Amino acid sequence: MPERDLLVLSEEPLNAETKLGERTGTITPAGRHYVRTHFPVPHAPGAIAVDGAVGRPMSITFDEIRSLPVKTLAVTLECAGNGRRFLEPKVPGEQWGLGAVGTAEWTGAPLRALLERVAPDSKAVEVLFRGADEGVPKDLGRRIAYERSLPVAEAMSADVLVAHLMNGGPIPPEHGGPLRLVVPGWYGMASVKWLSRITVLEEPFVGFYQTDRYVLDRSPLRAIAPRAILTHPQDGTRHERAIWIAGFAWSGAAPITRVDLSTDGGESWDKLPDAYLEDSPRYAWRHFRFEHLLTKRSAVQHWSLAVRATDALGNTQPVQAKWNALGYANNAIRTVRVEVLG
User: Fold this and answer.
1) Residue 301 has what pLDDT?
2) b or e along 89-106 (b: 16 or more beta carbons within 10 Å of the residue's beta carbon)?
3) Helix or strand or coil: residue 333?
4) Partners of 35 in the beta sheet?
5) pLDDT tens per residue across span 281-320
6) Per-residue pLDDT, 253
7) DSSP letter assigned to residue 64
8) How many angstroms separate the CA atoms of 82 and 139, rounded?
């Protein structure tokens, strides 16, 4: 396991946040990248079984997968429960702040290359992925494996990976190594870790983590909702008249095209100039930095800073959270309160 520098919510199973701050980089090292696990880390199998509605079911070894042509993508992964801690009234589940997110470079074979080898049936509608991790969810009362499915069209897209490298090195066990799925643009629950089986289905999957958990408005969660966060300044800090802000913005549905700034907690907004938004790969968060934010010369002022992301499809962050019983997809803006000396 790489040297760990995380905000740990639970040790067994391990659930821990990325520490978001001034030193947060565009690429998150494995030891600083958030970790979400439902059950204890398993012993990964030596091969992946691929079966179901296919013409040529087979078992594919890790070495065979590693021998396939590879693709590397910088991908921001975010837990669907990120921001759950801020909902009122409180909801069950891991009480994530804003750090259940991280961006790594994932390298692996496109899933499509594996599926083409087994010849999926034309009647197939979904592809099911099973992890080697198993346990008893407290609300279910029986032992299951972690499983999640994708529509066939999504599974056959060019950018879904069966990954074996994270930031150029073997994927650490807590991040799903040696082989895991990476579904860019979707909440992290879709990127099944410790892959052990892939099954092509002619009917939609109705397992626990597909129809009972990771569901919002009766539909399985998919694309990551837009979000912007401030990594500088930190809440409760004091600053001189000229200060600077920095942070990241991301969205699963489309690239980020705009970040707005508020100094009054969301009452009014100003667009950050495009020059302060760094370019980024399609599925990676976009860094921004704005310097010389000036205050009026006066006594001490109290600012409530907030940033708001908008993507190319017009999706944007709400000012107020939309409450739901399991606390998913809470991408409402968060304010950072600072004291500024005029």
Assistant:
1) 83
2) eebebbbbebbbbbbbbb
3) coil
4) 16
5) 999 999 999 987 766 666 778 899 999 999 999 999 999 9
6) 97
7) H
8) 21
CA 342 and chain centroid, separation: 39
User: Which pair of structure tokens corresponds to residue 90?
Assistant: 């409180």
Residue 44: per-residue pLDDT: 87
CA distance 48 to 266: 49
Per-residue pLDDT, 17: 98
**pTM attached to this predicted model:** 0.96
Asked whether 299 and 339 are in contact (CB, 8 A), the reply is no
Whether the link from the prior residue into 178 is cis, omega within 30° of 0, is yes
The DSSP code sequence of 262-285 is ESBTTSS-EEPPGGGBPP--TTS-
What is the rounded distance in angstroms from the CA atom of residue 85 to the CA atom of residue 107?
32
Give the span between the Cα atoms of 251 and 225, in whole angstroms. Answer: 6
Measured in whole angstroms, the distance separating CA 278 from the mean position of its chain's CA atoms is 20
- Is the dihedral angle over the CA atoms 210, 211, 214, 217 positive or is it negative? positive
Mean pLDDT to the nearest integer, 76-104: 98
Task: Return the percentage of the chain with pLDDT > 90, whole number.
Answer: 91
- Helix or strand run (H / E) with residue 154: helix 152-155
d(CA 158, CA 166): 19
Burial (CB < 10 A; 0-12, 13-18, 19+), residue 57, is middle
CA dihedral 254, 154, 84, 74 (to 10 degrees): -60
User: 182 near 106, Cβ under 8 Å?
Assistant: yes
pLDDT tens digit string along 191-233? 999 999 999 999 999 999 999 999 999 999 999 999 999 999 9
What CA–CA distance (Å, rounded) separates 342 from 298? 5
CB-CB contact of 179 with 132 (8 Å): no
- The rounded distance, in Å, linking the Cα atoms of 322 and 10 is 26
DSSP strand pairing (195-201 vs 47-52)? parallel
Separate counts of helices (H) and strands (E) for the chain: 3, 23
Which residue has tokens 């801020």?
86
**CB contact at 8 A, 309 and 247:** no
